[in-house]
Specification:
This protein has no helices and seven strands. By secondary structure, it is mainly β.
Length: 103
């Protein structure tokens, strides 16, 4: 069989065993770089792991919201506001813009 070892830099290492030469890693974090290594094993133990490959998962919609919305100025016909960015861990990709909804 084969053992797949993978992790995001600085996080816990996950090990999964497979009987085939194809593996699907699930429940990964969007827009994150993973280090992935594979080793063969038999009844006598596990061999050395391969050289790591690095892969970034695809992005997804942001899971967080902008923070600390502040009104900077108002007039009879305008409101100027600012906010802090979505936290990096909740962006799930590159933020290319913001939608401001008002009524």
């Amino acid at each position: 069989g084969y053992t797949v070892r993978y992790s995001i830099s600085g996080s816990n290492i996950t090990l999964r065993n497979y009987s085939d030469t194809v593996a699907t890693l699930v429940d990964l974090i969007p827009f994150s770089i993973y280090s992935i290594e594979v080793a063969a094993f038999n009844v006598n133990g596990t061999g050395p792991f391969s050289t790591p490959v690095y892969m970034r998962t695809d992005g997804d919609t942001p899971s967080g919201t902008p923070r600390e919305i502040t009104i900077l100025d108002t007039t009879s016909t305008e409101i100027t506001l600012q906010w802090r960015e979505v936290p990096c861990i909740e962006r799930n990709g590159d933020i290319i813009g913001y939608t401001v909804r008002y009524s």
